[in-house]
Amino acid sequence: MNVTRREFGRLTALGVAAQFAPALNAQSGKKIGYAVIGLGRIADHFMRGALLTGNSAITGLVSGHRDKADKIAAQYNVPQGSIYSYENFDEIAKNPAIDAVYVALPNSMHAEYTIRAAKAGKHVLCEKPMALNVAECESMIAACKVANVKLMIAYRCHYEPIQLKAIDLIRTGKLGKVQVIESAYGFNEDAGEWRLDKKLAGGGPLYDVGIYCLNACRYLTGEEPTDFSAYASVVDHDGRFDTVEENLVWTMKFPSGAVASCSTTYGAPMDGYFRVHGSKGLLECTSAFGYENVRLRGFYSGTRIDESETTPDPYQFQAEADHFSNCILMNKEPQSPGEEGLRDLTYITRIYRSAGIPI
Ligand code: NAD
Questions:
Q1: Residues of the domain holding 176
Q2: Is 71 part of the annotated catalytic residue set?
């Protein structure tokens, strides 16, 4: 990750560089042990990323499929006694090798497992979207506060160097005043996926991938949106979109007057990108929300920029795990706490309302 000492100083001043700080474990030797709940696609990226850190380890697995859990346990040296089912999950309370959980389940299960983990005295790293609705987010935050455990939402882009570079260029005024942002992210979703079932997913592509555009507009401007308008549609009447939207476009206005227009879909391969138009230039980020090849191009104040991140996947998950473990070891608040996930759910609710979709 190419962050120079000078850049690091600036990012530290912005409060966005904690993930580059050396972990306290250099002194204590302690690694944060994670129990991974839900052994699907994203869990695989996270486990491989955690392994690359010096401060995190996989010490527990929670799955409904014992054969799958056994295979992964062998890969990560997780003892048989640290493999749990959804039924006996609460017994992690008695396992001192588990400091934290990583919730990598369908969205509808995030609240339940975050609250059960907090009650078991474990810190929680929960995947995005934080939960199905604002009320669930609030109960997750409350449960973690009562149990005095940390809660971080796995917004990996907050820990990605190219994104941090874009934030830095904007915060330091190089781009001038942000006027307009465009952002999009989507893909073709297969029939039969839990993401197409509103009960499990909460909603369609906005919950799943549009949330990256929403979140990016917020961290790029450093502002909270105040006004929303949105349209949703279904083009493919083939049964996939009986309960969730296929396409959604929305606009947002920020207190400075900056405006954003965003699109998301489950019906087309849509590369994740953002374009920030400032009074002194343009920043365009491609593959912005992917796992690798994030590229930032543009110009500002007479300077051209073309930078790409060449570190392969799972570097973003490594940075994310390193950051949360560091927060636990040093008793610091994560850069993307539960409140950050709650804000996005608040805005998602307003976007759906504007599009006439009940939530
Ligand atoms: P997945 O379908 O690959 O994995 C989900 C896991 O949950 C599976 O192991 C499955 O067995 C388990 N599960 C338990 N109960 C289930 C049920 N009732 N229905 C379906 N699966 C059930 O999903 P995924 O892509 O890994 O997504 C998991 C979470 O991670 C979601 O919240 C998603 O939004 C999030 N995610 C985040 C990123 C990221 O880049 N941060 C990327 C993909 C997914």
A1: 161-308
A2: no
Residue 105 beta carbon below 6 angstroms from any ligand 1 atom: yes
pLDDT tens sequence across 165-191: 999 999 999 999 999 999 999 999 999
Residue identifier of the C-alpha nearest atom 30 of ligand 1: 104
Per the annotation, the verdict on 177 as an active-site residue is: no
Residues 60 and 175 in one domain: no
pLDDT digits (tens, 9 = 90+) for 211-236: 999 999 999 999 999 999 999 999 99
Contact at 8 Å (CB) between 100 and 151?
Answer: no
CATH code, domain with 292: 3.30.360.10
Give the confidence band of 29 by pLDDT, cuts at 50, 70, 90.
Answer: confident
Q: Which of 84, 102, 122, 128 is catalytic?
A: 128
* Lowest mean per-residue pLDDT among 15-29, 150-164, 258-272: 15-29
Q: Tell me the average pLDDT across 66-86.
A: 98
For ligand 1, mutation pick of 105, 108, 212, 324 (most atoms within 8 Å of CB):
105
Q: Is 127 in the pocket of ligand 1 (CB under 6 A)?
A: yes
Beta bridge partners of 265: 186, 247
CA 59 to chain centre: 22
Instruction: Tell me the C-alpha distance between 181 and 284, whole Å.
Output: 10
Rounded to two decimals, the pTM is: 0.94
Written as one string, the DSSP assignment of 135-177 is HHHHHHHHHHHHTT--EEE--GGGG-HHHHHHHHHHHTTTT-S
Residue 24 shares a structural domain with residue 149: yes
Looking at the structure, do residues 139 and 211 belong to the same domain, yes or no? no
What's the CA gap between 248 and 250, in Å, rounded?
A: 7
Candidates 36, 39, 42: which one to mutate for ligand 1, based on the most atoms within 8 Å of Cβ?
Answer: 42
Q: How many helices (H) and strands (E) does the chain have?
A: 12, 14
C-beta neighbour count of 90 within 10 angstroms: 12
What is the four-CA torsion angle of 177, 179, 180, 181, rounded to 10 degrees? 20
Average pLDDT value over all residues in the chain: 94
Q: CB–CB of 221/258 below 8 Å?
A: yes
